[in-house]
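Q: Here's a chain of 508 amino acids. Please give me its 3D structure as tokens.
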Amino acid sequence: MEQKNLTMPVTVNETVLKETAEIPIDTDYTLPDYCPEISKILKCKTDVFIISKGINGKNVGIDGNVLITLIYVSDEGELYSYEYQYPFNKTFEGTDGIENADVFAAAKTDYINCRAVSPRKVDVHGAISLCVNAQKKKPVEIISDIDDDTIELKRSVIPATSPIGYAEKYVNIEEETEIGQSSDAVRCVLRYEGTARIKECKLLPNKAMLKGELCVKTVYATVNGKQQHLSTVIPFSQLLGIDGLNESCKASSGCKLCFLEVKPSSSEESKSFTINAKVLAFCKTYCENDVEVITDAFSRKFETEFKKNSIRLSKLCCEVTDRMQIKDTAEENDIKICSVCDMWYSSVIENHSIENGELKLSGFINACIIADCEDEDPCIIEKKIPFEYSKKLEINSDNLYCEPTVNVLSGSYIIASENCIELRFELEIKAAIYTDNTDAVLIGVNINSSKPVEKTSRGAMTVYFASKDENIWNIAKKYCASVKEIMRINELTEETIENDRMILVPMI
């Protein structure tokens, strides 16, 4: 018997690929003639950039670059650095249906070791981790109603955050920045780092306008042998097209630095730098719309086959934004610290969880310090500083999960003694908290009108002794009875029985 069913589409995010791969770094290089010879290596610093990603057939390809910065001391006791670009690529095998997926990728350095095999030649060995996650919007057709008053339907509301769309674009940045005419000329760039962030996201019809800034810190040595710092802030904007977007939607936006290069001007008395950068700006949009679904059904008259399918719906419950201060010390008993030339740092999340309605994060800050030492060459001081964060959430559920980030907003130091440096950091904690709901919902109905259901009682009324917390739906399904009529006759307002009691079940 063909049944007239009302259906509706529900859009869910489906993960079609999620993998992590280790990529080894095994290379050597020779310093160019314009670089002095190596007396002592202080640090081999790495920055990993993902340059491009794309889908080719069933495969996902990732291209990137590892910027290896060698910081060393020359025979004259002066600081120098040399950059080496190590390209990498990786292909991940996908499956059917991956063609229109959105690809997300992240990479980090696992470890890096380097050694000077000669005054001008360096061996580098290490590894990076590359994570890829491909997701696509998948419409699922579910039954929203059945045009048959003899069929009982169990409805449920699933909290949901439905995806609207995702878009990303690269922003190319080129900027000239000066250090000032009264400053000493630049001898060489020792190190640089960049941080990109989105400051504003404005939603328009089918478009998202992102405004952000790129902050670049450059550490350089002057012709007089001094170390100087220069900070540059470069604004940028990008317009992203997203179909179906309107001002009532919500968005999660961000950006990633994909390439950065800072070079002094070509003149011998250089007093400016050229900054070239590439930033990936992205925006994920969604709307809040809880979905009413049918989770169970039965017919009071005929044997019926119901087809179900499990769907996973997530809902953004809240977003945590917080800051915390971290203090620690770095001590080196065998040296006497005169001054600090440079310091850089990064954060790592080791564990995160939500337990008993409490968000918990733990990790550490990697801090590296280059210091001038009395009667010695500059030295490197490294410190791994742990942190813990917890916050009681206003919601409590067993199916919560989070997507956290921890960024170091600032770092400072004070030379407390000749062998001790006090360190202070300000961390920014962000976490999106989601509920994760998976339910079996009705997607198909087949009624066999030639097979009436066999009822357990042939009387007009059946007496049933219900237990506390028993559900009326289960009673009605057992006797092929009407939920509405059971509640009406027994003057019930809730479908869950509050106490042990007798229930009259009309056999209609």
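Q: Can you summarize the key feature?
A: Residues 161-289 form one domain.
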